[in-house]
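In the previous chapter we treated chains in isolation. Here, by contrast, the input contains two separate entities that must be folded as one system, with a combined length of 569 residues.
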Amino acid sequence: MYSTRKIIFLSIVTLFSIFAMLSFLNIGSEFTAERMLFDATTVNQGVPLNPTETVLGTQRQVESKLKEIIRRFPGGESAKQAHISLAAMYMQNERYSDAAAVSDKIVKRYKKDRGLVSKARFIKAKSYELKERWDKAFRELEYLQYNYGDTYLGLQVPLYIAQYNKNAGNEAEAQELCRKAVGFYKDKREKNENTWIGYMASDLLVMTYILLEEYENAGRIIKNVILNYPTHFEPQQISRIELVFTEKLNRPHETVRIFKNIIAKTENKALKNFLISRINNM
Amino acid sequence: MRYNIVRNWIDSFDLMTKKSFVTVPFIIWGFLEILALIFIYFSTGTPFMHITNPLIKKFFGEVFLHYPANLFIMPTLYYYANLLIFAAIGVFLSAVTIDLVGKVDAQTPLKTRSMLEEALRRYGPCLVYAILIVLVGVLVRNLHAFGFGKVLRYFSRHLPQIAWDMMPFISALSLLVLRIAFYAFLILTIPIIVIKKKPFIKALGESAFKGLLNFFAIFTLLLVPYLICSPVLLVKIFYKELMEATFVEMVFFVTLGGIVIIKLVECYTTICITRFLLDKERLTKEG
């Protein structure tokens, strides 16, 4: 009979060879790029927490990993994400010029990917803001609002600008900007009814009314969103409903009615249980 | 006369180490399972992606096509691959081991070609047996889920916190015990087909009858080796926590380690059960 040891040895060698061959086949593929990106971004998450010398070393390590992904896998999805992560990392580390340069590169290289370009433009605007160059940041944000108004970040710009002015103490200007934002979101809502943009615009309209302290209007839109977009409901809206109806308008029964309405419509068990517990607490 | 279980364990271990060629079918089985695991690991990469990506997207969702989410479905994909290998070739290979043990015991010469030809003739019954075992496995799992839930609801108020913390392990262990209790009635089917050359239905009936008469001996013969490898079970249950605590590829190494250990135990218990049947036959002949 055959030697068992020989068979075990041959099996192990064969398995190792197959593993090595498949690894080799995937060296230049998106499979490896995604792995490298995950490694780099998970390391990056720990970076701003500990500003010591070793962390500086880690930052360099993350930077070189992200650059390697961009260099080795230029055409893939991971390269796009690596560009964005690199720009965000530069911004976090106060390397604003580098962040702006990477953002410009993204805008040039990935013109057709509107979601990605809007992220890059936002990072550039945020870098200017952190650099205390609000004039430049404002120009970037305005461009984002009018040219990328169909993206997640582009839609948020009017409220973002109003919020910035309010935080800066420019109350009158903030009020005016909020009014403009209301107009912008109403327009988007009407033109994009029953779509993702319509839902986002409605949600942002609620937040703008809250900033304006117009809680009746906010409540009206909340009810409308729940009626028209039952499948889009997101858990973070719960706190907004409680703020508007229970705290500000002093109508807890309205909160309960809305929660019961959501419970009846949603298929999300965790959300159902959470809402039941909120009703019981009230 | 009571059957000497400890003697069986010692003799089976001796046979496994001294006549190690009896383990070769299980080495092949393990090899195929590890190969399947490697293919699953690279399933979203080259060259499998064109076939596997649409399937993963359809049954699990697009997010599982990307790293590291693809590794979280690895145990599920491996489970299905494992079932397929078990039904298609696993039982057939374990029948070859049983044949080898029988021939070693009878001291008949081992001829690879004639053994393989004989084994191929048994492929049909092996396949039917494998399907039966899979169905019984599903039935036992559902029974366990139902019964365990009932028992837990009854005792829930009296259980200490530590029991709740250990609940996944307790649940897996009780499922293992229940599974072995059921298999005690079926496990002798293939040894009876191979050694006593009986047709499938008769072998199944005899296995159930022998299982009933010798339940304690068969149950203990199987349970103890599996209990020894229960730490592997524990590691496999908490693979998500392990992935988060160490690195995401940990699931690959945990599954790989599980295959090696479980195959060793399966090989050992197959030898134990075959020896049990041979001993019983000998005792019957001796009167």
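Chain B has one domain: 5-286. Chain B has 15 helices and no strands. Compare these points with the single-chain example from earlier in the chapter.
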